[in-house]
Design a protein that fits this description.
globular
């Protein structure tokens, strides 16, 4: 079923976001598929809602999709990178501090696999976290979805 991921990737490249979203949603939800394939689909859904926010369920950061990817495959590096890289104060970023910390732990565990640009992004987002941004629990942490 990696073919579905490839098809969705091609659709995204040509701007056919709705079709890609449908394929990825079906793939992610198919419990008969391998966990890594499903996690890849969830991770790509996270990226896709950032590209095309009208596809989001109110979570334009992609956080809910990245979290689902990590539920399916707890060490999914790129889902964890999605959570880390979208933490912040600007629109289309999330403020879920606990999700950031959990994802950062996954990323740090696989640090050697990251290129310099990815490492820099992690360090940049860590500085935002350390600055005290989002010191109060977000609506997402309390079970509500927060959209910014």
């Amino acid at each position: 079923m990696g073919d579905a991921i490839d098809t969705a990737t091609e659709l995204i490249a040509t701007g056919e976001y709705d079709s890609a979203f449908q394929i990825l949603s079906q793939t992610a939800g198919d419990v008969t598929l391998a966990a890594d394939v499903r996690a890849d689909a969830y991770q790509m859904l996270g990226v896709l809602v950032q590209i095309s926010p009208d596809l989001s369920d109110g979570d334009e950061s992609g956080l809910s999709h990245y979290e689902r990817a990590l539920q399916v495959s707890p060490n999914h590096l790129w889902a964890a990178m999605g959570i880390v890289s979208t933490f912040g104060e600007r629109p289309y970023q999330h403020r879920n501090r606990s999700a950031f910390l959990a994802a950062e732990a996954v990323v740090r565990h696989q640090w050697l696999y990251l290129d310099a640009a990815a490492r820099e992004k992690v360090q940049e987002r860590r500085q935002v976290y350390d600055s005290g941004f989002g010191a109060t629990p977000s609506a997402h942490e309390s079970g509500e979805t927060e959209s910014r």
